[in-house]
Structure formats: C-alpha cells, structure tokens
Specification:
Elements lengths: L2 E3 L16 E2 L5 E2 L5 E9 L2 E9 L4 E7 L2 H13 L6 E3 L6 E6 H5 L3 H16 L5 H5 L1
C-alpha cells in the first residue's frame, strides 16, 4: 500500500504537525471490493494517525476507524489542522467510531495535504490502477 506522510504547521501552533510532506516509496493497491486504496499518515503533536484513502469512480474518500473514541477525536482534530472539516461519528454498525472526508472537503485542505493526495493519485495512474479520466476527476 502506498503510504504518504504529511504534516503542516499553522502559524503559532506549537502542537501542530511539523514535518514536510514526504511521500514514501510504496504502492497503491486494489481492495477486495475493487477500489484503489492507500494509507495516508498525518503526524502531529507527537502522535501520528493513519487514514485509509480510497479512490472511487468519482471521489477521493478518506476514512479512519477505531473502537477508541479518543483516537477518533484525535483523527478529526489532525484533519482540522490541515483545513479539512471532519467530525468523529459512531459507526453505522455501532461497533466503534469513524472519521470520514471526501473530495469536496479534501480539496479545501492545506496545500501540503492536497499535494500528498495528488502523489497517491498519480501513483495509481502510473501503475495502471486507474485510467486518466478517473484520475482527473
């Protein structure tokens, strides 16, 4: 799975992520459901959260799941630091917590995060996992 580490530091926030966008060598893979998927890691405040990124036909979907509500709250806060509006919610099956964001809110994110997403999409395109039309959408 392709893993991209990303972080941003808003002015005046000592606890905000501090490293630069660093895509790591790896691959985007196909899930059992036929979607292209990758991991996206956002570090900040001495912790890091791994999000699952899926490329569906017309959208980029970012997702975090946990049985620990505190980890879900952390995942939502780190996304908010990047400019993505996200809230932790109870999973539909009642078994844990999730944070989700999709194309529209991800497009409004800080430049470093949108660049990390572009690297993942370009990797999927280069490996033939998505066609040019889907990558452009």
């Amino acid at each position: 799975m392709h893993t991209a580490a990303y972080a941003a530091r808003p002015h005046g926030n000592r606890d905000a992520p501090t490293t630069s966008h660093v895509p790591l060598d790896g691959s985007v893979k196909l899930t059992d459901g036929g979607y292209e998927a990758a991991d996206l890691i956002i570090p900040g405040g001495g912790v890091a959260v791994k999000y699952n990124l899926y490329l569906s036909e017309n959208a980029v979907k970012l997702q975090f799941r946990s049985t620990d509500r505190g980890r879900g709250e952390l995942a939502a806060r780190l996304l908010k630091v990047t400019g993505v509006s996200a809230e932790v919610k109870r999973r539909g099956d009642g078994d844990g917590w999730c944070v989700r964001a999709s194309t529209v809110v991800l497009a409004a994110a800080r430049e470093e995060l949108t660049k990390a997403l572009a690297v993942i999409i370009k990797t999927a395109l280069a490996r033939g996992l998505v066609d040019a039309g889907k990558a452009e959408r």
